[in-house]
């Protein structure tokens, strides 16, 4: 069956998990590149900001001592939407609050719609896996703001259950730890052993599974095509 592309003007949640180096960030970036409205990425590792700099991607860097109260406006009449990056200081004693306030930018101001990409969710929650107030608002009723939400993390067991539970699309790369596989299986309604067997046998290299909550199907997906610099030709819809 054919998968229906989500309307970027409306809310859609994507959760991506799996081992380091298998393709989580690359997959998230394919959604990001395809999205046409305001965008904000919470870049815990600071790798995405460096990628943008290396590629010459224009963006507003919101990192620093003072966070703006709303997303900046575009100064380009030909491009009314903005691309923003927030790189938290992970050594700061207020880092979790700083990150949560940055997320809140997508819930206020002029935004009628927008994409929030949280790379490495585990770096945005406390040791008990509890999110801050804005992240809770986003997970609970970000849909009312037409928020397009993308989140990645290697350890589903250590982040809020709401991430896989609320996602319209649950993407999983190789996940060797049983407890992490079990967390995903429980949230998409698959028997744990069945799901673990699929993950072990199919998710090799950069293969992944994609569970579409709309049609309740689990798709077995090959690696996504390699991006071409400056060309936005691909979005990762399962087929």
Summarize the structure in words.
It is built from seven helices and nine strands, in the order E-H-E-H-E-E-H-E-H-E-H-E-H-H-E-E. The termini are close together. It has 239 residues and is of the alpha/beta class. Helix 6 packs across helix 7 (192-202). The protein has a nine-stranded mixed beta sheet with strand order 3-4-2-5-6-1-7-8-9, with helices on both faces. Helix 4 links the parallel strand 5 (114-119) and strand 6. The chain has one domain (13-221): P-loop containing nucleotide triphosphate hydrolases (Rossmann fold, 3-Layer(aba) Sandwich).
Sum up the overall morphology in one term: globular
As laid out across the biggest beta sheet, the strand order is 3-4-2-5-6-1-7-8-9
**Count of spatially separate domains:** 1
Q: Work out the helix count.
A: 7
Number of strand elements: 9
Helix content: 25-40%
Strand % is 15-25%
Q: Unreliable runs, pLDDT <50, ≥5 residues?
A: 230-234
What would CATH call the architecture?
A: 3-Layer(aba) Sandwich
CATH class: Alpha Beta
Task: State the fourth-level CATH superfamily.
Answer: P-loop containing nucleotide triphosphate hydrolases
Mean pLDDT: 90
Which class best fits the helix and strand makeup? alpha/beta
State the CATH topology.
Answer: Rossmann fold
> Biggest sheet, in brief?
9 strands, mixed
Radius of gyration: 17 Å
How far is it from the N-terminal to the C-terminal residue, by CA?
7 Å
Order of helices and strands: EHEHEEHEHEHEHHEE
């Amino acid at each position: 069956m054919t998968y229906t592309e989500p309307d970027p003007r409306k809310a859609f949640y994507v959760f991506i998990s799996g081992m380091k180096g298998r393709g989580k960030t690359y997959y998230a970036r394919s959604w990001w590149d395809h999205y046409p409205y305001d965008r904000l990425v919470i870049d815990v590792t600071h790798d995405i900001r460096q990628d943008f700099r290396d590629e010459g991607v224009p963006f507003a860097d919101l990192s620093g001592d003072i966070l703006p109260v709303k997303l900046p406006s575009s100064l380009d009449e030909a491009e009314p939407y903005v691309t923003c990056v927030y790189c938290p200081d992970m050594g700061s004693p207020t880092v979790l609050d700083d990150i949560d306030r940055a997320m809140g930018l997508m819930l206020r101001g002029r935004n009628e719609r927008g994409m929030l990409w949280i790379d490495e969710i585990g770096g945005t929650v406390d040791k008990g896996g509890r999110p801050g107030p804005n992240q809770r608002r986003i997970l609970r009723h970000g849909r009312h703001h037409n928020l397009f939400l993308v989140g990645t993390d290697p350890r589903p067991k250590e982040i809020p259950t709401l991430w896989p539970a609320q996602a319209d699309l649950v993407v999983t790369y190789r996940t060797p730890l049983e407890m992490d596989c079990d967390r995903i299986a429980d949230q998409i309604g698959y028997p744990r052993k069945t799901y673990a067997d699929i993950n072990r046998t199919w998710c090799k290299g950069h293969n992944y599974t994609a569970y579409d909550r709309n049609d309740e199907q689990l798709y077995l997906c090959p690696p996504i095509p390699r991006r071409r610099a400056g060309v936005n030709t691909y979005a990762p819809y399962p087929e």
